[in-house]
């Protein structure tokens, strides 16, 4: 980690989220801890149902309070977020922590112009006269690379392409000058050339504002390109974390290794018929209502190296000789 | 393989959709979306042709036109040497048995009120195959086993299955009529990474076991590269580049393909840091009003004089050092053979249009 003044802007410790369901308690996030440093990007990687999005929504108080049980701690800038009421959270969201979600088509209000939505976001965080807010909205659109920003203020979301809508979402997220930005599958719905534009934009803005970014995704390629630190989630737990290099070059956990092996690459020069089959992990992630005893990955694990795997939950432990790299497995791969 | 006629051939294929204007009071004003706008393409027996492009480029429409799920507005589709437009309804139906489609969304493409057994058995009923209850039941069980489903689950409904399992149901249904040609239309787009790998490996195995010919339609270039023998790149209704997968993807000759390849994130931080990503400006133009001349010119980093005036056609490219300019022709070297059939529609390789 680079030496920034002061350390992390957001510290999450032992975050747990469970939902009451008719079938029983669904334990979706089971003890998650991480730090977000200013100007750095933490990538949280996982497949559907791994708890990666729920963990972020919990921080922001965006889960339905009547069914979600949240415990643990999340300290943002010295301020505990867990257990706050709606009004207190509203002050944090946007101004402290901004969000960009996957689908810009559904996160924007279809019947309001882009300008109106931006002005609302701006005035929610700071009292300013309408015309000042409007000028600032125009600046924000220009900052996120929207051509002809003044006339775009009058546009409705459906008049914009997917990439442009996602730029507007980013502009809205930046309106409150957040110190932490949570991007939840923010480029998943976009084409790769548009994704490249948005990634470029976000990395530039992050550098300019020294924003701490939590990038939630299933796409290991994107992670390799933008993350400083990576956390891999499975069944609501962190199974491995480390610097982006440690994770991709020296993965330890069988799940991480499986994910990397399952990802096709462009730059293997062999023709398709001479390539190896992709690595597959049989089966599915466990049901959060009936988490298995022992390691949650045990039922799908190709290694099962230790007698304890079935009965004991492997703790998240440091990988020998690799500072900052931790994995929750009893297995030590060869050559590591 | 050379010399054998292709299984599927499209010539001068156009698929245009008339669209009503979105403006109130002007509903009668129509514009035409040129989803597929002049495509020549063939698929060889036993190969996988990858069709890659971004949303709205017309790749799914092209795939559906090749199996006549959509009627072309102009041009022909030949299947096994027969022009499908000349066939009677009954002849077309028996030809349909030889082709199938695997759709993207296993949540939307299965009937929620039907058991998966009934869904898989539907093509059998339509084509009158494996008649008799017991025989049909046995065949459905066999198909389920082939795609890795438990035949005892034939009485279950789609909602009882995961996304990957539902896609297996869709694959079993596609295989029921024993097709020769299968259009896989974004078959892995809505699946998790580990499940994508399962489905891709399954498709590869099925092709080997049953000698299938695939059109693999996807926006995911890495997935296409993993399974396709040849790759066609589509932009705004046209094929802009086509050839053997290693030459098209590893040595792209069209500026759009180049940008596309450079934008695919690699799961390696080392490669990502070293990469020079080409970030295209602007958005894809509307397929209702494609730009004059080359359709890619409005976003092309290499645009030059002839681009707005001449519509480029596919022309042979590649070889040892194609981008630099034409050196001596490679002769009979292996490289020249490998590059054979590599074509790009770009004036950089000589103004032809």
TrEMBL record, chain A:
Task: Give the family from UniProt.
Answer: Belongs to the ABC transporter superfamily.
The Gene Ontology biological process terms listed for this entry are: peptide transport
- Its chief place of residence is membrane
Per its record, how is this protein called by name? ABC transporter ATP-binding protein
Topological relation to the membrane, as annotated: Peripheral membrane protein
Q: List the record's Gene Ontology CC terms alphabetically.
A: plasma membrane
Q: Does this UniProt record's set of keywords contain Membrane? A: yes
Task: Give the originating organism.
Answer: Phytoactinopolyspora halophila
Ranges of residues in domain ABC transporter: 12-260
TrEMBL record, chain B:
Work out whether the entry's keyword set contains DNA damage. Answer: no
Molecular function (GO) terms for this protein are: ATP binding; ATP hydrolysis activity
Q: Which CDD domains match?
A: ABC_NikE_OppD_transporters
Q: Which residues form the ABC transporter domain?
A: 19-261
Stored InterPro entries: AAA+_ATPase (IPR003593), ABC_transp_ATP-bind (IPR050319), ABC_transporter-like_ATP-bd (IPR003439), ABC_transporter-like_CS (IPR017871), Oligopep_ABC_C (IPR013563), P-loop_NTPase (IPR027417)
Task: Give positions of region: Disordered.
Answer: 319-341
Q: Which UniProt keywords apply?
A: ATP-binding, Nucleotide-binding, Transport
Sorted alphabetically, the Gene Ontology BP terms of this entry are:
peptide transport; transmembrane transport
Q: Which domain of life is it from?
A: Bacteria
Please report which protein family the annotation says this sequence is part of.
Answer: Belongs to the ABC transporter superfamily.
Question: Know the name of this protein?
Answer: Oligopeptide ABC transporter ATP-binding protein
Q: Which organism is it from?
A: Phytoactinopolyspora halophila
């Amino acid at each position: 980690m680079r030496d920034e003044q002061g350390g992390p802007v957001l510290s999450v410790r032992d975050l747990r989220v469970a939902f009451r369901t008719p079938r029983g308690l669904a334990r979706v996030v089971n003890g998650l801890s991480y730090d977000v440093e200013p100007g750095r990007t933490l990538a949280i990687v996982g497949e559907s149902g791994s708890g990666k999005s729920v963990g972020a929504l919990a921080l922001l108080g965006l889960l339905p309070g009547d069914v979600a049980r949240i415990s643990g701690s999340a300290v943002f800038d010295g301020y505990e977020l867990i257990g706050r009421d709606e009004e207190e959270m509203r002050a944090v969201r946007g101004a402290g922590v901004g969000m960009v979600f996957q689908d810009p088509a559904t996160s924007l209000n279809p019947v309001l112009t882009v300008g109106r939505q931006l002005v609302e976001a701006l005035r929610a965080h700071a009292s300013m006269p309408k015309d000042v807010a409007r000028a600032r909205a125009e600046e924000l659109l220009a900052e996120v690379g929207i051509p002809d920003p003044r006339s775009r203020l009058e546009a409705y979301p459906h008049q914009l392409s997917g990439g442009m809508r996602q730029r507007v979402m980013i502009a809205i997220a930046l309106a409150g000058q957040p110190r932490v930005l949570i991007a939840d599958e923010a480029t998943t719905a976009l084409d790769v050339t548009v994704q490249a534009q948005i990634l470029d934009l976000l990395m530039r803005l992050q550098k300019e504002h020294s924003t701490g970014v939590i990038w939630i995704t299933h796409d290991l390629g994107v992670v390799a390109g933008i993350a400083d630190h990576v956390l891999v989630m499975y069944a609501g737990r962190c199974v491995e974390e480390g610097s982006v290099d440690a994770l991709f070059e020296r993965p330890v956990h069988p799940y991480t290794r499986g994910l990397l092996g399952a990802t096709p690459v462009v730059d293997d020069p062999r023709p398709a018929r001479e390539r190896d089959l992709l690595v597959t992990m049989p089966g599915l992630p466990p049901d959060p209502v009936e988490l298995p005893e022992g390691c949650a990955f045990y039922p799908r694990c190709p290694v099962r190296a230790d007698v304890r795997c079935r009965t004991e939950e492997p703790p998240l432990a440091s990988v020998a000789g690799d500072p900052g790299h931790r994995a929750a497995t009893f297995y030590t791969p060869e050559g590591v | 393989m050379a010399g054998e006629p292709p299984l599927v051939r499209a010539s001068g294929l156009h698929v245009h959709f008339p669209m009503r204007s979105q403006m109130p009071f002007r509903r009668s004003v129509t514009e035409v979306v040129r989803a597929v706008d002049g495509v020549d393409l063939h698929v060889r027996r036993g190969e996988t042709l990858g069709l890659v492009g971004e949303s709205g480029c017309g790749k799914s429409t092209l795939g559906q036109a090749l199996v006549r799920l959509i009627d072309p507005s102009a041009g022909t589709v030949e299947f096994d040497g027969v022009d499908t437009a000349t066939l009677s309804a009954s002849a077309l139906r028996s030809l349909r048995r030889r082709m199938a489609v695997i759709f993207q969304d296993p949540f939307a493409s299965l009937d929620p009120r039907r058991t998966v057994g009934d869904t898989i058995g539907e093509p059998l009923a339509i084509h009158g195959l494996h008649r008799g209850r017991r025989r049909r039941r046995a065949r459905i069980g066999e198909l389920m086993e082939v795609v890795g489903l438990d035949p005892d689950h034939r009485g279950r409904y789609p909602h009882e299955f995961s996304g990957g399992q539902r896609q297996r149901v869709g694959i079993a249904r596609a295989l029921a009529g024993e097709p020769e040609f299968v259009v896989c239309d974004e078959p892995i787009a809505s699946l998790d990474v580990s499940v994508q790998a399962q489905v891709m490996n399954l498709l590869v195995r099925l092709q080997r076991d049953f000698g299938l010919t695939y059109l693999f339609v996807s926006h995911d270039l890495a997935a296409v590269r993993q399974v396709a023998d040849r790759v066609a790149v589509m932009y705004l209704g046209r094929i802009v580049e086509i050839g053997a997968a290693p030459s098209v993807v590893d040595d792209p000759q069209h500026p759009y393909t180049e940008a596309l390849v450079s934008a695919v994130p690699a799961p390696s931080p080392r490669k990502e840091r070293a990469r020079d990503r080409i970030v295209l400006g602007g958005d894809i133009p509307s397929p209702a009003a494609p730009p004059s001349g080359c359709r890619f010119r409005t976003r092309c980093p290499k645009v030059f004089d002839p681009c707005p005036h001449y519509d480029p056609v596919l022309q042979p490219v590649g070889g040892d050092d194609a981008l630099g300019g034409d050196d001596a022709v490679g002769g009979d070297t292996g490289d020249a053979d490998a590059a054979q059939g590599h074509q790009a529609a770009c004036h950089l390789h000589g103004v032809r249009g």
